[in-house]
Fold this sequence. Notes:
By secondary structure, the protein is an alpha/beta fold. Helices cover about 25% and strands about 25% of the residues. A hairpin with a 4-residue loop joins strand 25 and strand 26.
Amino acid sequence: MKNVVIAGAGFAGLAAAAGAARKLDELGATNDVRLIVVDQNDYHSIRVRNYEDDLAPSLVPLSKVLEPIGVEHVRAKVVDIDTGSCEVRLHTEQGAQALSYHKLVYALGSHVVRPTFPGADYLHNIDTYPAAERMNLHLHRLSALESFDGQFTVVVVGAGLTGIELACELPARLLQLAGASRAQSVRVVLVDANSQVAQSMGNEAQAVIAQALSDLKIEVRCGRLVRVVSKDGVELEGGEFIPAATVVWCAGMRAPSLGGRISSSLDAAGRVSVDHFMRVTGTPNVFAAGDTARFEICPGHDNVMSCQHGRPMGRYAGHNVVADLFDTPMLPLLVERYVNVVDLGAWGAVYTQGWNREVIAVRNDAKRTKQIINRQRIYPPLSGVRADILADAAPVLQSAPTVQIGSSGSG
């Protein structure tokens, strides 16, 4: 019995587990390999929904996906990886343990980079389900307090896609919490060090996003750094103080430091380099997928930290790790398209295609498309049926989302 260990049960890790189980089934070798997923949680989080208010639908029990396809789940935190001895070292409720592997898929995701300026402990974030729930609970508690300056002001730091989606979601949420008598005190401020919001989205999409922010009455502070945070608010460089009971950090993502235990070739975000088969460059028996890995996903462009790339990377990593174990042909991953659908709260959304971010839908049509993505497309099958889960793990690319024009149907 050989061990294939998948470290992480995020989008890439869960897809890798299903992809590996599918390939074993195809080879008729399900009794020859032990597939093991290591994750400290007993759920898979649809992380991209963490800006929403009701997060209960964003959790998928791992048992619902892994048990039907014969994949074990070890609930533990990965604390070290020794590629020399082929061991993954774990911290469990029972203490330290070591798990040997014949092949490893490194898919531990990414985490928000916390700042070190004074008052950083006052910051909220929506990087994980528990963190997003803590922020939601904090917001709900505010409505029970006597009125004070900044009570219903939220400062969102980081005007990338996560920060924009959260900022656009907040006005409606805060108005409901504040009630009619305190509606005038609702304020959302979006702060970013860059010269404009959505720096990577291109002029056409940036104009759409700017219009949404304006219509939603979200204040923007671009080209500004946070100097200090306190329980009373935020001071920006230049001296402006914004009274705020809530400050949410959405700036910067990084892969785990464990990548340095696998490879000496890391990019600026700490990602290991992989080839088109998801093999870690220069490290035998180790594959990587999702936010922990970097490769040229199509000519001239590296993969981005998103489920859009993490899920197919995981499926191909799972397929190829088993193919490699049995010395059968592997499949290269090449993704020729790129899309972005950004939720803009009550205003709607914007849907772009291509690396030049050509806008193809806005407002309600784009919003319906975003909801299909968030609520259906990026979920694993929830039927509990083995055949459904394995079929979904096929090493193929999902078609681009269909624009939902005046419809609630799936794309």
